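User: I need a structural model of F-box domain-containing protein from Favolaschia claudopus for a docking pre-check later this week. Nothing fancy, just the predicted structure tokens so I can convert them on my end. Input:
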Amino acid sequence: MLDFLAADRAFLAEKDVEIQELEAQVLALERSLSSLRAARNIVQQRLHSYKYPVLTLPNEIVAEIFLHFLPPYPEVPPLLGDLSPLHFTHICRQWRDIACNTPQLWTAIDLNPRNVDNLPITLEGTLALTGLWVSRSGHCPLSIRMGSQHDPMSILAPLIPHCHRWEHLTLMLESTQPLSSMQGSLPLLKSFTVRLGTSISDDEVVNLQDLPSLSTVFLDAFKIPHINFPWSQLTSLTLSWIYPEHCMSILRKTTHLERCILHLGLQDEPQDDFVDLVLPRLRTLEVEVDGDVYVNIIQCLVAPALRYLRMPESFLNPWSHPFKPLQSFISRSGCHLNKLQVTGAYVEVEKIDVSDSD
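Assistant: Understood. Predicted structure tokens for F-box domain-containing protein:
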């Protein structure tokens, strides 16, 4: 009996020693853990107080950086994706606030959004994004581009109430209905690009006269309906894939034109009723032709202020006196060309003498 009691007492004494050793180790670990926690808290507080240099910039500078990231106005960025101004709102709260309160970021609107991650953008999504752009753009002028749409009127609907802010407009249309809906005043519109599909009837009439600021028009169409632009106030005009008779009819109305680019389409029969076309302020003329065009515009044109001429070789006479048409044009106009470019020429353009001679 006494032997059992002695053994138990020895066992307890041994365990007490082990417990004391472990408690000492735990105490040491707790002290180490407390020290580590204190060091971590100091570093954490230092990190919390640290600001990245870019986040210390004034909001105005950050907004200017955002604007330089986007394509220059009036070019339009995508509505979605990394190149969209919407991307700035996903970085941090500070940048989101700056982006949402910088109206100039939202003034160029692409109504033909590209797919993102191969997912199509629905009509509802496009309308929602368009409404967001319009609301964030404040009272700034707008640049709008719309591709060929099945329902262009629905796409344009959120923007019609803001037509007084339209400054640059690009439309690709299979119907003139959207043009007809714009017959009110567009006081800020400076440039208008219209690409018309082949289904447009050439007997349609569209009146777009209340455009007091319009100076630049780009018209691309095989068939030209009766679009009544304020032609006389234009200073820059591009006519693409247009029949020569339509071209001449329009040019006669553009008396203040300074820059003109023409891409003339095919013409079935020669036109003999063209007389001198006088464009007194024209300084730049670029002409391209598609196939056999019977109207040589430099034989009809009088342009005393012309300084740059780009024309196809077919406007010359390659068989006899190749430069006589050009010399006749210069003599008739009394212009002083600074630069002449002949496309598709078999001759050294730099050696052409464009002075008046027999």
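Before docking, keep this in mind: The chain has nine helices and 14 strands.
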